[in-house]
Amino acid sequence: MPVTDSIADYITRIRNAGNASNKTTDIPYSRLKENLSRLLVEKGYIKSYTVITSEQFPFIRIDLKYTDSGKPAIKEITRVSKPGRRTYEGKDLKKYLGGLGLFILSTSRGVLTDKEAREQGIGGEVLFRIL
């Protein structure tokens, strides 16, 4: 089945794997998804990721992170900018929940968090929010 919104598919696979208490999930590869995974590892929302290219189609294997009580580290992950309605923010981007969560942006300088974008004084497309 073809996917029209690959970022929404990425988010949904992570959310569903966390809700099902799976240790890993596989996601079709793209450079954007690899950069998103790298950012989520840096911010502590997922344990690690591995790009696997031995198959016919490359994919990313994400190792999910859980709290000591067994709950997913990602409490909420929601798509903001959608194919039918793109959402862009300027350099005066507001904090998500007063800084408790993050907005993930696609900018001219790559994939950044809202904090990094504010520090660099740039805006971009708000891909999703995560708590």
Topology:
Blueprint: H1 6-19, E1 24-28, H2 31-42, E2 46-52, E3 59-64, E4 77-79, E5 88-89, E6 102-107, E7 110-113, H3 114-120, E8 124-130
Antiparallel strand pairs: 1-3, 2-3, 4-8, 5-8, 6-7, 6-8
Would you mind describing this structure in some detail?
One of the primary rRNA binding proteins, it binds directly to 16S rRNA central domain where it helps coordinate assembly of the platform of the 30S subunit. One of its GO terms (molecular function) is rRNA binding. The protein is an alpha+beta fold and 131 residues long. The chain has two domains: 6-64, Ribosomal Protein S8, Chain: A, domain 1 (2-Layer Sandwich); 77-130, Dna Ligase, domain 1. The chain contains three helices and eight strands. It has helices at residues 6-19, 31-42, 114-120; strands at 24-28, 46-52, 59-64, 77-79, 88-89, 102-107, 110-113, 124-130. The strands form two sheets. Strands 4, 5, 6, 7 and 8 form a five-stranded antiparallel β-sheet that branches. The longest helix has 14 residues, at 6-19. The termini are far apart.
